[in-house]
C-alpha cells in the first residue's frame, strides 16, 4: 500500500507545483533509481517519481492544447459539436462544445478539448447537434482573489481552455453519432420529461438534478438552503450518491441471490456486479462528467480489489482506487470535490467495514453518517469558512431519505412509461424538504480562513477520531482539530489601514480595514443574476473573518460599481451607506436610506482618517457624481476616485489645496479611461503607485494607452488587476508601500498567461 500512496502523492505533487513540472527530468530520475545500486532501497521514491512524471506529462499535453494567444479575440470558423445540456439565462444561451475542426491557415496542431460558447442571440442549440459557426475565443481566464473560487484551476481540470461567443449565421450540420451525443440527447429528453411531469412542484429543479445531474434548474434560494444545512453535496451526483446507490442495489441483489438456486456464483460477486452496473448507468444518466467518472472508477477499483481472488483489505483497496482515478485523470487532484467525495467515501468504508466484530445495522449506518459529516467538515470550513451547526443532523436525516430512498425511486420512476411516478416522487421530495427548511434557520459557524498547516493537522485529526472506540489516542484527534478553529488575526494594528483592490473584472471594489472596522468602496458589476458582491467580495470578507461591515460607499450607480451592493447589505448589514447617487441606489431597497456623498464629510477609525473630497455640490449624475474618498494613515494616503472624469478633476483642483489631494497610492479613475487622470490632476496627486481595476481584454480597451503613458510620466509604478490580480497594500506600516498582486505573487502553472 505505501507504493500506491506514494504514486498518488507524486501525481498530486506535480499538480501542486507553481511552475509547469518537467516530466522528462522526473523520468530520468526514475530510470536512475531503477538501474542504480540503490534501487533496492529506492523503490518507494521510485513510485513517487513515476507518479510525478506521469502527471507532469499530462500537464504538458494539456497546456499544449491551449488556444493560441495570437488568435484571441479574432473570429475563427469552426465545426463544433454541442456537449452536455445547453443553458439559457436572461442574456444568452450557454453551452459547451467540442471543436471537431478549426479552419485556420496554417492549421493548428492542437486546440482545446472543450470550449465554452455564449450565444447572445439566445438561439436553440440542441444537445448533440453539430454546427459550422464563427467563434470569437479567448484563453481561459478568471478573476484572481484571496479566499475565492479558483476558477482557472477548475477550467484547467475540465479541459475547457477557451471560451467566447458565436456570431450570427451559424449553419447546422448533420447530428453527431458520437456516443456522447446520444447520451446527451437522452439526458435532454429526461430533463424535458421531468420538467413536464414535476414543473409545478417546489423542488422540481432538485429532482432534475438528482435524476440527470443537471443543476441549472435549481434556483438560488434552494442553493442557499442546501448550503445552510450542509447538504450541497446531496444535489451533486458524486461519490457519496453513487456509493449509496451501488450499496443499495448490491444489498438487494445479495438478499435475492441467496434465495435462488439456479446460479452458483458467490452472492458477494453478484451484488458487486449489480451495484457497479447500477452506479455506472446512473453516472451515464448524470452526464458522465469528470467527477462522476472519477467516482465510478473509484467504485470499480474498490470492487475489483475487494471481490478479487485475493482480497486486499479495505485500506489497500482504497489506495488502489485512489491510484486508479489519479492515473486516468491526474487533474482530479485540482478538484476540491474529488477530495471531498473521495475521503467521505473512504471514511464511510473505514468506519463501516474496517472494524472487527459485527454491529447492528442502525449503528453501522450511524457510524457511516458520522464519518461522512466529519470528512466533509474540514474541506468545507477550509474552503468556505462556514459550517452549519446542524449539518450532522441534516445529513443523518437527508442522506438515507433523499439519497437512499427518493433518488432510487426517482430513477425508477423516470424509467417507467408514465409521468405519474415522477410527479409522485416530486411531491414526496417537497414533503421531505419541509424539515430542512426549518433546519436552515439555525445559525452557522463562521470564521476566517484557516492556515494550510491547520488544515493538514485537522485532516489527521479526523482520521484519528475515526478510530474504533477504545483505541488509545483518540483524544489526540480533537487536539489536532483545534487549530482549524483558531485562524490567525488578519486585521492591521491601530493606526494602519489595510487596502485590498479586488479583481472584479471590468468594475471596481476596494476593501479598507482598520484595527476594528471594515469599509467597502464600490461593489463590482452585476451581469444577469450573478454579481461580484456574492462571487468575490463576500467570500473575501468571510475569509478575512469579517462578519459585519461598518460602512459601505457606492461611488455612483453605474452597474460596474453598484452591481453587488444588494448582495453585501443582505449578508453583512453595513452600519451606514454613503452614495454618490443615493436616489438611484434607493431603488435597490437597501436596509437603510443611503446618505448623499458630499465634499467635507470625514470620520476617523482606529487612528485612520477618511475624507470625502467630491462631489462638491449636489445635483450631479452618472460619473460626475462619483464619491471621491481619501484614506490617510500615519502620513501615507490612498485616493479613490470612482469614475470621476477630467471636469471633476478640474473642479477638485480648483476647490482643494494640492496637499489635500496628494496620495501615495491612486486608484485610477474610470478604469484608466482617457476621460480621466489628466496631467494636472496627476501632478497634484503625485502618486508613487497607480492601480487600475479593469477586466481582461475588456471591450472598452481600458486602460487607454495615453493614460498608461501619463502614469509612467508621473513616476508612478503601474498595477493592473487584470494582470496582477487583487492588489493588497498597507498604509502606515513602512516608509515604502509595497503593493502585492495576488496573481503575480502566487503564480501557478494552471493560470492563463503563466508566468
UniProtKB/TrEMBL annotation:
It is a multi-pass membrane protein. The chain crosses the membrane at residues 234-257, 269-290, 296-312, 319-350, 370-389, 396-416, 444-467. It is found in: Cell membrane. GO terms for biological process: establishment of competence for transformation. Keywords: Cell membrane, Membrane, Transmembrane, Transmembrane helix. Its main location: membrane. SMART domains: Lactamase_B. The keyword Transmembrane applies. It comes from the Bacteria. Residues 506-696 form the Metallo-beta-lactamase domain. One of its GO terms (cellular component) is plasma membrane. PANTHER family: DNA INTERNALIZATION/COMPETENCE PROTEIN COMEC/REC2 (PTHR30619), RECOMBINATION PROTEIN 2 (PTHR30619:SF1). This is Competence protein ComEC.
Amino acid at each position: 500500500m505505501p507504493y500506491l500512496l506514494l504514486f498518488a502523492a507524486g501525481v498530486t505533487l506535480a499538480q501542486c507545483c507553481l511552475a509547469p513540472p518537467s516530466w522528462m527530468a522526473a523520468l530520468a530520475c526514475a530510470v536512475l533509481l531503477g538501474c542504480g545500486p540503490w534501487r533496492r532501497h529506492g523503490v518507494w521514491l521510485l513510485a513517487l517519481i513515476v507518479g510525478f512524471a506521469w502527471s507532469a506529462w499530462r500537464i504538458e499535453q494539456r497546456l499544449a492544447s491551449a488556444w493560441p494567444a495570437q488568435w484571441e479575440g479574432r473570429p475563427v470558423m469552426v465545426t463544433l459539436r454541442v456537449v452536455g445540456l445547453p443553458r439559457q439565462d436572461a442574456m444568452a444561451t450557454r453551452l459547451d462544445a467540442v471543436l471537431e475542426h478549426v479552419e485556420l491557415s496554417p492549421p493548428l496542431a492542437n486546440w482545446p478539448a472543450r470550449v465554452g460558447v455564449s450565444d447572445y442571440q439566445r438561439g436553440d442549440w440542441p444537445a448533440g447537434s453539430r454546427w459550422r459557426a464563427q467563434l470569437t475565443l479567448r484563453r481561459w481566464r478568471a478573476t484572481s482573489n484571496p479566499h475565492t473560487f479558483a476558477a482557472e484551476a477548475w477550467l484547467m481540470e475540465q479541459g475547457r481552455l477557451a471560451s467566447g461567443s458565436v456570431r450570427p449565421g451559424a449553419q447546422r450540420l448533420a447530428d453527431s453519432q458520437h456516443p456522447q451525443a446520444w447520451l446527451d440527447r437522452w439526458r435532454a429528453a429526461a430533463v424535458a420529461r421531468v420538467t413536464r411531469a414535476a414543473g409545478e412542484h417546489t423542488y422540481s429543479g432538485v429532482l432534475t438534478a438528482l435524476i440527470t445531474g443537471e443543476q441549472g434548474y435549481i434556483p438560488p434560494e434552494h442553493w442557499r438552503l442546501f448550503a445552510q444545512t450542509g447538504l450541497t453535496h446531496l444535489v451533486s451526483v458524486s461519490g457519496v450518491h453513487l456509493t449509496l446507490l451501488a450499496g443499495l442495489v448490491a444489498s438487494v441483489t445479495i438478499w435475492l441471490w441467496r434465495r435462488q438456486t439456479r446460479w452458483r456464483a458467490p452472492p458477494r460477486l453478484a451484488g458487486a456486479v449489480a451495484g457497479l452496473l447500477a452506479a455506472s448507468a446512473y453516472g451515464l444518466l448524470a452526464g458522465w462528467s469528470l467527477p462522476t467518472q472519477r467516482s465510478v472508477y473509484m467504485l470499480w477499483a474498490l470492487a475489483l480489489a475487494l471481490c478479487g481472488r485475493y482480497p486486499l483489505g479495505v485500506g489497500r483497496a482504497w489506495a488502489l482506487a485512489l491510484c486508479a482515478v489519479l492515473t486516468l485523470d491526474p487533474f482530479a487532484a485540482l478538484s476540491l470535490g474529488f477530495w471531498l467525495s473521495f475521503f467521505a467515501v473512504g471514511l464511510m468504508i473505514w468506519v463501516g467495514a474496517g472494524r472487527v466484530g459485527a454491529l447492528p445495522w442502525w449503528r453501522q449506518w450511524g457510524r457511516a453518517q458520522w464519518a461522512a459529516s466529519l470528512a466533509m467538515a474540514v474541506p468545507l470550513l477550509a474552503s468556505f469558512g462556514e459550517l452549519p451547526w446542524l449539518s450532522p443532523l441534516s445529513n443523518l436525516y437527508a442522506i438515507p431519505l433523499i439519497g437512499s430512498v427518493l433518488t432510487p425511486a426517482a430513477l425508477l420512476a423516470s424509467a417507467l412509461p408514465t409521468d405519474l411516478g415522477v410527479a409522485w416522487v416530486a411531491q414526496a421530495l417537497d414533503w421531505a424538504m419541509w424539515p430542512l427548511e426549518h433546519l436552515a434557520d439555525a445559525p452557522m459557524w463562521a470564521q476566517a480562513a484557516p492556515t494550510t498547516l491547520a488544515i493538514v493537522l485537522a485532516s489527521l485529526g479526523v482520521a484519528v477520531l475515526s478510530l474504533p472506540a477504545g483505541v488509545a489516542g483518540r483524544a489526540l484527534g480533537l487536539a489536532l482539530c483545534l487549530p482549524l478553529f483558531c485562524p490567525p488575526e488578519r486585521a492591521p494594528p491601530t493606526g494602519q489601514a489595510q487596502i485590498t483592490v479586488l479583481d472584479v473584472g471590468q468594475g471596481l471594489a476596494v476593501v479598507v480595514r482598520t484595527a476594528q472596522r471594515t469599509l467597502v468602496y464600490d461593489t463590482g458589476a452585476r451581469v444577469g443574476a450573478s454579481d461580484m458582491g456574492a462571487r468575490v467580495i463576500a467570500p473575501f470578507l468571510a475569509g478575512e473573518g469579517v462578519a459585519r461591515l461598518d460602512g459601505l460607499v457606492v461611488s455612483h450607480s453605474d452597474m460596474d460599481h453598484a452591481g453587488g451592493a444588494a448582495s453585501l447589505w443582505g449578508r453583512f448589514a453595513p452600519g451606514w451607506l454613503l452614495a454618490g447617487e443615493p436616489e438611484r441606489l434607493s431603488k435597490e431597497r437597501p436596509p437603510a436610506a443611503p446618505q448623499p456623498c458630499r465634499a467635507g464629510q470625514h470620520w476617523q477609525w482606529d487612528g485612520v482618517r477618511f475624507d470625502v473630497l467630491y462631489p462638491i455640490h449636489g445635483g450631479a449624475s452618472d460619473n460626475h457624481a462619483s464619491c471621491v474618498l481619501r484614506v490617510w494613515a500615519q502620513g501615507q494616503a490612498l485616493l479613490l476616485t470612482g469614475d470621476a472624469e477630467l471636469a471633476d478633476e478640474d473642479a477638485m483642483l480648483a476647490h482643494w489645496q494640492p496637499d489635500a489631494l496628494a496620495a501615495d497610492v491612486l486608484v485610477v479613475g474610470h478604469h484608466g479611461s482617457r476621460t480621466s487622470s489628466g496631467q494636472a490632476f496627476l501632478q497634484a496627486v503625485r502618486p508613487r503607485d497607480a492601480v487600475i481595476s479593469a477586466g481582461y481584454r475588456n471591450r472598452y480597451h481600458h486602460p487607454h494607452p495615453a493614460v498608461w503613458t501619463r502614469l509612467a510620466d508621473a513616476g508612478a509604478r503601474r498595477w493592473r488587476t487584470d494582470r496582477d490580480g487583487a492588489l493588497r497594500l498597507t498604509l502606515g506600516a513602512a516608509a515604502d508601500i509595497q503593493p502585492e498582486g495576488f496573481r503575480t505573487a502566487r503564480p501557478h502553472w494552471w493560470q492563463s498567461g503563466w508566468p
